[in-house]
Amino acid sequence: MNDTIRHDKDGGFTVIPEKVMKPLKFKEAAIKNTDIMYSAISRISYNLNSRLETFVIEGLKRKGFEFNNKYELVNFIEHRCKREDNTHLKQITYFIDNEPFFLHDYNIKMDLTTIIDGQNTTIKASYGNFAYLK
Questions:
Q1: What does 86-130 look like in DSSP terms, one character per residue?
Q2: For 89, left (φ over 0), alpha (ψ -120 to 50), or beta?
Q3: Of the candidates 25, 34, 79, 103, which lies 20 to 30 Å from 8 by C-alpha distance?
Q4: By residue range, what is the domain housing residue 119?
């Protein structure tokens, strides 16, 4: 039997039987590239949607509409706003009381070429162009 002896800091030792020393395989713990990419794309999507929401709220402010809380904003949007998606042109127009106030040209581009700089990994994405309408 080939037991291993591990010396402790306090001068003692521990005998580790050979059976315990067999290497462990971590196949189940391996992270697949697709999992990393899915996670990155999910974070990018969340970030871009948050920015779109911020731009729409700014467009509403430019038209004179401000809200004290999220409930007021959601209620206003549900009752007075709509959007039209022109899929052929990849444009969404947002309306208040049938008057356009915001245009989103959603030619979405994701550069899945990763840039690794030390511990940081960068993936670039564009959510298109935006325009505030008069």
A1: ETTTTEEEEEETTEEEEEEE---EEEEEEEEETTEEEEEEE--EE
A2: alpha
A3: 25
A4: 48-132
Structural domain includes residue 93? yes
pLDDT tens string 65-114: 999 999 999 999 999 999 999 999 999 999 999 999 999 888 766 666 66
* 26 located within any domain: no
Total domains, the chain? 1
35-77 pLDDT per residue, tens: 777 777 788 778 878 888 898 999 999 999 999 999 999 999 9
Residues 51, 125 contacting (CB under 8 angstroms): no
pLDDT value, residue 23? 46
**71 belongs to a structural domain:** yes
